[in-house]
Amino acid sequence: MDLTSSTAMWCAIVVLLVMLLATQKISRARRMSCIDPQCTSQQLPPVVNGVALLRLLPTLLKEGLPSMANDLYVKYGSVFTVSSFGLKVTLLIGPEVTVHFFQGLESDISHGNLLEFTVPMFGKAVGYGRDKATRIEQMRFHTEALKASGLRSHVHPMLQEVEGYFAKWGEEGIVDLKLEFEQLLMLISSRCLLGKEVRENMFDEVHALFHEIESSMTLISFLFPYLPTPVNRRRDRARIRLTQILSDVVESRKSSGRVEQDTLQKLIDSEYKDGNPTTVAEVVGLIMSLIFAGKRTSSLASTWTASCLLSHPVFLRAAIEEQQRVTKKYKGGLDYNAFSEMDTLHSCIKEALRMHPPAAMLVRRTHKPFTVEKKQGKQYEIPQDHIVATPTIVNNNIPYIYRDPHVYDPYRFGLERREDKVGGKFSYTSFSGGRHICVGEAYAYMQLKVIWSRLLRNFELELISPFPKTDWSKILPEPQGKLFIRYKRK
Ligand code: HEM
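Above: the input record for the complex with protoporphyrin IX containing FE. Below: its predicted structure, written as tokens.
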């Protein structure tokens, strides 16, 4: 890891800790010292203090955050509390100790106020701008809007966008795939999620506005979402303009009675349990948050897939051969069923996401104490009003679950090995699990397979850039720098 990125990473950790202090989380975290009578009977997790963390600094600087987290896991096991600057965060690693983290009731464990930074991004009408009951209903709207049954209708528009995009590439050339995927995924999101008004008439402006809001996803904005920094001010201006554009689209559909086949329409048609329909502001906030949840994560997934696949010729060949088999079978054209049969490609993407999960750390706040039991049987009490985190980047690399976890090996998900299943329900956490499992997983895989199927069938691809390092200074860690590839039309 070079100095710039490791320094950025270290700063990121410090900023994160300061952030938690600064946003009053410290006052609550201090209550962890087991003053609750319910938690006196159990032992608290071992504590890793600032001095122990400092000893790991060389590992952090030389080998990066996952190595440091892994060292802590090896030394302290699957449950331990990191204590620094007076703040305590308990890490839960592996399927044995994360069941309650993922499955606990919202009243027992939730995101609490940890996602407050999303309010100025999507507005007060949705998500963490609303009370818990409304938020849970709005999560249902997202789930229903992305149901697998509706996914079939997205395949054709996805195909059209992808074919149109790659038709513009020349006979041969060099491109930065990271940039290409970002643009292509915004086109697909516009078409399938936002709808044709935006896609056909105002794509460029909407894309630029989304980009402006996305750029505010820095640790400083996460730390101080309302501070009038230039980034936050640009974010606010962009959100106001985007809200205006999308509100006009929604109002025009409502007043004309026009009905479209996109996700925006599903959100317009959503109803609360009391029979009230979603308001215009709610529809706009819901569609914006959906695009943010899906676009960046998918473009990172695609970039990591490119990095892994193009540096592993055996799996690249296997994925190409699968394309030949499937296209032969579906002579009339690829459809939902054809993409669902692309198991090798699916595993290649899944393996890239195992090693490079865009959401490297998932966080919750406890509202009631609970007990976790380690594999060896030892139990610990996790107190009420405490921050807990599970690092997907470590969960996905546990050696007793994944054979040679540092090796890119998509075959580990095949029927004979099923490494993600034999370790238990929460062995593979790139899409989270349980109550907040990613509702866009099927949609994400479909759009990624549509993109990669086209690339593999139509182009010879060669990675020119070195395999990218991870930029840990971002809220969603990403491949550092550009990812140049050489392509040649087949
Ligand atoms: C490879 C791509 C993707 C990855 C790796 C990913 C990952 C995740 C993860 C880890 C979470 C849970 C966070 C937590 O537990 O705190 C999540 C939640 C969510 N994702 Fe995805 N996601 C992807 C694509 C998508 C897409 C394409 C959409 C929508 C079109 C989407 C919509 C959502 C929504 C709405 C939630 C919130 C669920 C809830 O809180 O109940 N995601 N995603």
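Notes for the reader.
Residues 76 and 279 are 49 Å apart (CA to CA).
Confidence is low (pLDDT under 50) at residues 1-40.
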